[in-house]
Each structure stands twice: as structure tokens, then as C-alpha cells.
Amino acid sequence: MKPAVSPAAIAQSLTETWSPRVVAEFDDSYVKVAKVHGSLAWHSHDHEDELFFILKGRLRIEMDAAVVELSEGQTFVVPRGVRHNPVAEEECHIMLIERKSTLHTGSEITDKSRSIDDQLRPLFEHRAPA
């Protein structure tokens, strides 16, 4: 059994932006956290919904037909196939729940796109004592 984790504490400790990290998994889904600032990229996930939960700060999710403004403690699900672009005017910490098959930026590949292998990297490096 894996230990309990604090998504908020893990998100706070991250040094990279727009680089989600897997903190838990269940069934066919990952729970991820990320530190975000600025704009990610317009993209969609053709076969998966994407749940955003705001741990700290504010996030705007731009979509072709609407814009959703989220603040701490709020959640929103972007339905599969909906083009969207997450934007954070200031640093924001988010938790995502996605199917394991969800590509970070869908079929759009940018300098901010992260592979699932990158998202699964250990959160903390274990170093031998000096």
C-alpha cells in the first residue's frame, strides 16, 4: 500500500511549470499535480474528459464556445473533444484527474508537451548520505 500524499504540498514543491507529475493512480486514471503560469496551448483530448481542481490561485480555461474562470477549491471538467487552453495570469497550482491514455497536449506537440514517462518521474530524488 502506498502512503498518503498531499497534492497541495507536492504542487508547491515543484520547480517546473506546465509539467504535471503523477501523485496517484486508480483504475484507469492518474491523479496529477502541476504548477502553472502563463498559457499552455490550444489542444483537445478526443477520447478523454479532463478534470481540473484548483489547489491554489486562479486558472482560466479558454474554450471555443466559452471561458471558465476557476479559483481555489473549484473544479471543472473539460469534456472530451473540446478544444481548450488553460491560462494562469499568476502562479497557480492544479490537480488533474485523467485517464492514463490522455496525452498532455493532445495531438498538439509544443515545447511544453510532456510525455507520460516524464510525468511519472520520481517526485524526489533519493540520494545516498555524504
Helix and strand layout, with pairings?
Blueprint: H1 7-13, E1 21-26, E2 29-39, E3 50-56, E4 58-63, E5 67-71, E6 75-78, E7 84-99, H2 116-119
- How big a fraction of the residues is strand? 35-45%
Low-confidence stretches: 126-130
Rg computed from alpha carbons, rounded to a whole number of angstroms? 14 Å
Question: Average pLDDT across residues?
Answer: 91
In DSSP terms, counting alpha (H) and pi (I) runs of 4 or more, how many helices?
A: 2
Structural class: mainly beta
Distance between termini?
Answer: 30 Å
Sheet of most strands: 7 strands, antiparallel
Q: What do these coordinates show?
A:
This protein is mostly beta strands and 130 residues long. Helices cover 8% and strands 42% of the residues. The chain is built from 2 helices and 7 strands. It has helices spanning 7-13, 116-119, and strands spanning 21-26, 29-39, 50-56, 58-63, 67-71, 75-78, 84-99. Strands 1, 2, 3, 4, 5, 6 and 7 form a 7-stranded antiparallel sheet that branches. The protein is globular.
Question: What are the key terms here?
Answer:
8% helix; seven-stranded antiparallel beta sheet; 130 residues; single chain; mainly beta; 2 helices; globular
Brief digest:
This protein has 130 residues and is mainly beta. It has helices at 7-13, 116-119, and strands at residues 21-26, 29-39, 50-56, 58-63, 67-71, 75-78, 84-99.
